[in-house]
Amino acid sequence: MVVVLFFLVLLLLPPTALAEPVVPTPEELLAMGKAQVGERWYGIYVLGSKVGWQKDAWLEKDGLLCSDTEFILTMGFMGKTTSIGSHEVSCFSATPPLNLVTFLQEKDEDGRKVRIEGKQEETRSEDATKTTKADAWAASNEKELRFEVDAGGRKRSYTAPADSVLLLHMVPWAAVARMKPGDHVDSGTFDELTGKKRWEKITLKGTEEKALILRPVRLHRFRIQDETGVDLDALVSGEGHVLEGTLGPSIRIVLEDRETARRKDVHMLDLYSTSFVPATGELDYAMAVRVKRLKLSLTGKAAISLAENPRQKTIETGDNRVTLEVTACPARVRGAPPAGDHLKCDADIPCDLAEIKEQAEKIAAKKKGELDKARALTDWVHRRFKYTLGGGGGTGDMILQEKSGDCTEFSKGLLTLLRAVGIRSRLVSGIVPATQKPLSFGYHAWVEAWIDGRGWVALDPTWGEFPVDAAHVIFDVEQGLQMATHLGGLEMEILEVEYSKTFGEIKCE
């Protein structure tokens, strides 16, 4: 929603901090919001190549403060062009509590379109205990947000608390005048498609003065972190305008004039080859060979923080380096399932739709246990889906209807089917072998299903692996951004390899 949130294209509790957070006052928030009025353009770069632009415009109207944001990203993928576009307008009340009043977003991912409308509504309580006039007045004036999602013609609605989206989330540095280096603000982001709220922490790293247009200007450098793995540096003016944002060594967004921001590079960045991680050492990865255990090291240009997972264990960490061991057959986990939204159905994963439940139950009808049902659904996606370069995004029902895409669509389709039959599941992403000579790894996505008595079992519907082998190295669980952070900046060394003795598959006892 703010300019830096392009990276979210993309634990509700904030991380523990030693210092108490700074809390911007309503007056500070309103003043900073009004200081945004106007239009700014940004160029978006990956490894120095222009991949898109973003327009960030603010205006005041009818007692509201509105943010109008539009962006377009265009990249190549093995010769095919893939494009994502979004236009979003968020209007906030100009009086406390400065929360969202209306919202509109239209998003297009390679032709798969989603439209989301939201507005603040009054909700009336039917609580019989509210007998006084004061209680009745308070009940009649309670607010909530109602969102209507139209994904490819299929509509869905939900409500969220009125404070889910605040002006604070747009200008979290509103109290910068009384912040000192090390101070932080606890903020958040809200996904209007799924209704999920995530914590966000904004820390002031320092303040500096630079000469801009022949006069000294005070600038503030912030570190922005959130639960998806974003670790972003942002350079912000005293008025709260973002001048530059960087995510790791590879992604940069910078304030430019309109003409420069919209100017395209002559050569389009190829996302597929850019994501390659060159590797040294020996690894035989013929089609019938499966890796049971893999020990490796990764070296990057920035600190590496991989998601915790029972399949892989971090052995050693150093300066921008990590050594880990991955196993295809982790120890079984017994006990209650882990906490999380692993059965949640929403507009993005509409696993509660009657036709999807019917389809999933039909595929798994002759299977008794969760493990066999998960295998049947994985095999079905692997056999029925057509692999197309670049994918195209979209919601789970769009993907199941079209039955095409790359690893992301294969995995999202499987996730939707698994949840439809009541199997807890989550998306996982990382790297897998991409080329043999020279040896390299590339971006990939797959799924993990929680099987009682076993724990998380990794499934790859794209490759048809059940379970996946140890050459699937995990970076992120669900919606992390570690791969984006290290795009084009990683190297791998293969240290030890143990192959499966079973031809063409992994068998775990």
Outline of the structure:
By secondary structure, this protein is of the alpha+beta class. The protein contains nine helices and 25 strands. It has a 14-stranded antiparallel β-sheet. Strands 15, 16, 17, 18, 21, 22, 23, 24 and 25 form a nine-stranded mixed β-sheet that branches.
Short key terms for the protein model shown above:
single chain; 9-stranded mixed sheet; 14-stranded antiparallel sheet; 43% strand; C8orf32 fold; globular; alpha+beta; 9 helices; 509 residues
Q: Can you characterise this structure?
A:
The chain is an alpha+beta fold. It has two domains: 3-10 and 13-262, no CATH class; 273-499, C8orf32 fold. Helix content is 15%, strand content 43%. The strands form three sheets. It has a 14-stranded antiparallel β-sheet. Strands 15, 16, 17, 18, 21, 22, 23, 24 and 25 form a nine-stranded mixed β-sheet that branches. Strands 19-20 form a two-stranded parallel sheet. Strand 5 and strand 6 form a beta hairpin. Helix 6 runs antiparallel to helix 8 and helix 7 packs across helix 8. The model is unreliable at 1-18 and 126-140 (pLDDT under 50).
The count of helical stretches stands at 9
The structural class is: alpha+beta
Side by side, the strands of the main sheet go: 8-7-6-5-4-3-2-1-14-13-12-11-10-9
Terminal CA distance reads 48 Å
Number of strands: 25
Overall shape? globular
Return Rg in Å. Answer: 24 Å
Question: What share of residues are in beta strands?
Answer: 35-45%
Described by strand count, sense and barrel closure, the largest sheet is: 14 strands, antiparallel
Helical content band: 10-25%
Mean pLDDT: 88
Low-confidence parts:
1-18, 126-140
Q: Structurally, how many domains make up the residues?
A: 2
